[in-house]
Amino acid sequence: MEGRAKAHVIVSGKVQGVFFRAETQRAAESYDVSGWVKNRMDGTVEAVFEGDEADVKAMVEWCRDGSPHSKVTDVNTEWEEYSGEFSRFEITY
């Protein structure tokens, strides 16, 4: 679809135990982006964002700062083909 995007991100740094997932969900909902976010065993946070290209790019940028108590050191982003498979944004485990 034209103007739609999907980003798969891995966020490194102090991103667990600082409400990063909850704040990511809040931000994604404010940008009307669907997908998911979860903690990984290695201490990083993984997320997939889908929606309007500008909103998805805004979410990737949001991840560079993260939640108020996080300290992001890296955001690895892979751009994928938009699939439209998500109806909302959720925290997964």
Major beta-sheet overview: 5 strands, mixed
CATH class: Alpha Beta
Mean pLDDT: 96
The geometry reads as: globular
Give the strand order of the largest sheet, numbering strands 1, 2, ... along the chain: 4-1-3-2-5
**Total number of helical segments?**
2
- The CATH architecture comes to 2-Layer Sandwich
N-to-C span: 29 Å
| Structural class based on helices, strands and sheet pairing | alpha+beta
Count of discrete structural domains: 1
CATH level-3 fold name: Alpha-Beta Plaits
Proportion in helices: 25-40%
Subunit arrangement of the protein = single chain
- Report the count of strand segments: 5
Nearest-angstrom radius of gyration?
A: 12 Å
Q: Estimate what percentage of residues fall within beta strands.
A: 35-45%
Uncertain runs are none
Q: Which H/E pattern describes the elements?
A: EHEEHEE
Structure description:
With 93 residues, this protein is of the alpha+beta class. The protein has one domain: Alpha-Beta Plaits. The protein is built from two helices and five strands. The chain has helices at residues 20-30, 53-65, and strands at residues 4-14, 34-39, 45-52, 71-80, 89-91. Strands 4-1-3-2-5 form a five-stranded mixed beta sheet, covered by helices on one side. A hairpin with a 5-residue loop joins strand 2 (34-39) and strand 3. It is globular, with a radius of gyration of 12 Å.
